[in-house]
Design brief:
Length: 208
């Protein structure tokens, strides 16, 4: 009888979907930021706003964990997944803040390529998150996870080439410092996406 009056499950999957949608939207802002860097402030502010919205969703998830008697996944799984998704959008904000703090006024083809890889990773990660609620489409989640791994490898390749080109061709030491940090942050986002994709894959396999 007591259990009938306890909150059950809550809206965890809805919160995951909302958060991953914000993540993908922020990645689109980042692509636009590096394509239109002379008007960077509008994109930087948009990424900041989305990061704050994502933080609120993370806090709501943690609060809901404390209030919910029966959860659809283990509590530590829910917490780790949401905080890992939050890490992705936090890293995008780090990139945008670098543009502002370092007063970066020109873009590069390498940075734009890395941003597009990040967006591709986020789109696939969002799709994988959407499969969590029914736990039925393991082959599709495995495919998405494999694509994210491929994209992460592509990001590695782009970053190595970008750093090589930067140190060979750029003469200004300050510009080298700025862009080395930006390239490494962008590639780090693809690493985090791969980590989250593998985690979702594990959740699906364990709970299907």
């Amino acid at each position: 009888m007591f259990n009938r009056f306890m909150p059950k499950e809550g809206k965890f999957f809805q919160l995951f979907n909302q958060h991953s949608s914000l993540m993908t939207s922020a990645a689109k802002d980042m692509v636009a930021l590096f394509q239109d860097i002379n008007n960077s402030e509008q994109y930087i502010q948009s990424i900041r706003d989305k990061e704050k919205q994502a933080d609120r969703i993370t806090y709501e998830t943690v609060d809901l964990l404390h209030k919910t008697f029966i959860t659809p996944l283990d509590r530590d799984v829910i917490f780790k997944l949401m905080t890992s998704l939050d890490d992705v959008i936090d890293m995008m904000e780090d990139v945008s803040e670098c543009i502002s703090l370092y007063n970066v006024t020109h873009s590069s083809d390498d940075a734009q390529q890395l941003c597009r890889v990040v967006l591709d990773c986020c789109e696939r990660l969002e799709q994988a998150v959407q499969h969590l609620e029914n736990m039925k489409n393991i082959p599709e989640v495995l495919r998405l996870s494999s694509e994210i791994e491929r994209l992460e490898s592509e990001g590695d390749r782009i970053m190595r080439n970008a750093l090589s080109r930067l140190f060979r061709e750029e003469k200004d030491a300050i510009t080298i410092i700025k862009y080395k940090a930006i390239y490494e942050l962008l590639e780090g986002i693809t690493d985090k996406c791969e980590e989250v994709g593998n985690y979702i894959q594990g959740i699906m396999v364990e709970n299907a």
